[in-house]
Design a protein that fits this description.
Elements lengths: L3 H11 L6 H40 L3 E5 L5 E9 L3 E4 L2 H11 L4 E4 L2 E4 L1 H6 L2 E2 L4 E3 L5 E8 L4 E8 L3 H10 L24
Antiparallel strand pairs: 1-2, 2-9, 3-8, 4-5, 6-7, 7-8
């Protein structure tokens, strides 16, 4: 009678001719560790980069910024996304009470509660410069306001056609050791790859 461990070892050995399972497992584990380290670096730097991009936007008015390797090759463009003014329900109870009196066709009774068809309501409203909501009769609609917009919500990265390849090649050459210390590979003596 064989044990589960023996069965597993036999299965692994039987597949050794087709696929080196240990090598594949090591490869995936290495890639996972590197991916986790890179994600941690990205998460740690995202807020700082967003803050700096906002400062540049405020100073220069530009929403897009080129990203270049140390060689000067452009690999991507970072673009800030700016929020647009948008209506927002801030007090659902007040909106419901107003809608019952002024727009009963928008009130739906859902088992155990009433709610307003918010999208339909917002289409019927107009907004003053201060964000106050008004219906077609000029009555103030409580619990709804217009958010100002103009705030940076996030940034996005758009790679140039060969940008990812250029980054991968620079990574392989150890060019990011100063930019990503402890994460990116570095050449042992700072530039010589050891070939003679």
């Amino acid at each position: 009678m064989t044990t589960k461990k023996q069965d597993t070892e036999e299965l692994v050995q039987s597949h050794a001719a087709d696929v080196d399972t240990k090598t594949l497992a090591l490869r995936q584990t290495i890639l996972r560790a590197i991916a986790d380290a890179l994600k941690a670096e990205m998460d740690a730097g995202r807020a700082d980069l967003t803050e700096r991009l906002v400062e540049l936007y405020d100073a220069l008015g530009s929403k897009s910024f080129d990203v270049k390797l140390e060689s000067g090759k452009k690999v991507a463009t970072l673009s800030l996304s700016i929020s647009q003014p948008a209506p927002k329900v801030t007090d659902e109870k007040a909106v419901l009470e107003w809608a019952k009196r002024n727009a009963p066709d928008l009130v739906r009774v859902v088992p155990a509660r009433e709610e307003v068809a918010t999208a339909g309501l917002l289409e019927r409203l107009s907004f003053a410069e201060d964000g106050t909501a008004y219906d077609r009769n000029g009555e103030v609609v409580p619990g709804v306001t217009m958010t100002a917009g103009g705030e940076v919500t996030h940034y996005s990265t758009k790679f140039v056609p060969d940008g990812r390849r250029a980054i991968a090649e620079a990574w392989s050459r150890g060019e990011f050791a100063r930019t990503l210390p402890g994460v990116a590979p570095a050449l042992a003596d700072g530039g010589d790859d050891g070939d003679e």
